[in-house]
Amino acid sequence: MGTLTEALESRGRAVREAITNAGFAVGMLLRAAARVPRDFRLRWGFLRDQLVVCGVTPLPVVGIVGLFTGMILVLQIGMELQNYGQAERISDIIAVILFREMGPFMTGMILTASVGSAMAAEIGTMSVSEELEALESMSVDPVSFLVMPRIVALALMTPLLTFLGNVFGVLGGAIVSRTQLSIPASVYFRNVIESLRADPDSVFGALPEEILSGTVKAFVFGVIISTVACSQGLRARGGAIGVGHAVRRAVVACFLLLIVTGYYMSWLFFR
Question: Which of 38, 157, 187, 269 has the most beta carbons within 10 angstroms of its beta carbon?
Answer without folding.
Answer: 157
